[in-house]
Amino acid sequence: MSILEQIKAVEQQAVQARREAKVAAANIMRETEEQAAREAEAMIAEARQTAKRMVAAAEEEAKIKAKAVIAERNLEDRASALAARGKLPAAVAYVIERVVV
């Protein structure tokens, strides 16, 4: 085999090696992109679940706080009603005094 033929053979091998490298690189890129997409989907799913748990916890906390506020307001309303009932005889006496006089 002459030197010229050897050079051509090496050039052919180099071209083939480049083709194989491009194919291998493309495969690696595709696999990497697929893996990244799977990981991103898993992260999104986990974030959604975390958000759902946080919303549920916030709703539960809001219910507890609402019950506490309602109970407090009920106590305040009862106290106001008792105070008003205590003043009712004086108010009736005042009205009767103004109407009669």
Describe the structure.
The protein has 101 residues and is mainly alpha-helical. It contains one helix and no strands. The protein starts with a helix and ends with a helix. The mean pLDDT is 93.
Keywords summarizing the entry:
rod-shaped, about 100 residues, mainly alpha
The stretches of 5 or more residues where confidence is low (pLDDT under 50) are none
Work out the helix count: 1
Major sheet description: none
Quote the distance from N terminus to C terminus.
Answer: 140 Å
Strand content: under 5%
Radius of gyration: 42 Å
Number of strands: 0
Structural class: mainly alpha
Q: Sum up the overall morphology in one term.
A: rod-shaped
Provide the helix percentage: over 70%
Mean pLDDT: 93
The SSE order reads H
Structure in a nutshell:
The chain has one helix and no strands. With 101 residues, the protein is mainly alpha-helical.
Secondary-structure topology with pairs:
Elements: H1 3-100
